[in-house]
Amino acid sequence: MLLAAYFRTAGYATDRATSAKEGLRKLDSGSWDAAIVDLTLPDEDGIVLTRMLRARSSIPIIVSTGRNGREDRLAALELGADDFVTKPFEPRELVLRLDNILRRGERRGRPSGPRLLCAGGELDLAGHALVAPSGECLDLGATEFALLRFLARNPDRVLTRAQIIDAIAAGEPPESERAVDIRMSRLRRRLKSIGLDAALLKTVYGVGYKLTLPRRPLSPAGR
């Protein structure tokens, strides 16, 4: 693709996903530092994909579309996109827009490595740590990290204890369901210790657990 080639000449490594499903899978691999989302996808509207990407990660997102509707632009920005461009555009313009977003992120202390949004903070996938908005950092053990990563990659989804046990086993003998409950109780205490909202980690009685997303305040236009 011409656009990918232009980004490579500008010093970026590029990857491509041809569907929303593939994009989410690649994002979960932890290999992306930014995403450019086209609204026209074969399996999902790009606006919906933008919401799913933002729920899983804090990476910069630029939405690109040939549609001229004002509502698309507002919806994308409302759901967490960092910028929005309408086709046709010059590849250089898109590169400059991404450069600017990344520079702003560096000034604000945005992480350069992959992270997942988690309980109002960010899960550092490379550093195996949970970072609060205050900058306070919680180092995680291997099992605790695997548990939080599994929860953060499945926001607002009820996960059974059996699913959680499978996700954190990593080749070790599986834990009991009671052990999972104990881990969750300890995890809530640790979230509180760095000022995060432990209430976002909800018990679904008789089933398992769910990590909910923090509610975003409505904009004046959305009230």
Automatic annotation (TrEMBL):
Name recorded for this polypeptide: Response regulator transcription factor
PANTHER family: REGULATOR OF RPOS, TWO-COMPONENT RESPONSE REGULATOR ORR33
UniProt-listed Pfam families: Response_reg, Trans_reg_C
One Gene Ontology term from the biological process aspect of the record: regulation of DNA-templated transcription
Domain named Response regulatory: residues: 1-102
DNA-binding region as annotated in the record: 113-213
GO molecular function: phosphorelay response regulator activity; transcription cis-regulatory region binding
Record GO cellular component, one term: cytosol
Domain of life: Bacteria
Keywords: DNA-binding, Phosphoprotein, Transcription, Transcription regulation, Two-component regulatory system
Keyword Isomerase found: no
All copies of domain OmpR/PhoB-type, residue ranges: 113-213
CDD domains: trans_reg_C
PTM annotation (4-aspartylphosphate): residues: 38
Lineage, opening ranks: Bacteria, Pseudomonadati, Pseudomonadota, Alphaproteobacteria, Hyphomicrobiales
UniProt xrefs under SUPFAM superfamilies: C-terminal effector domain of the bipartite response regulators, CheY-like
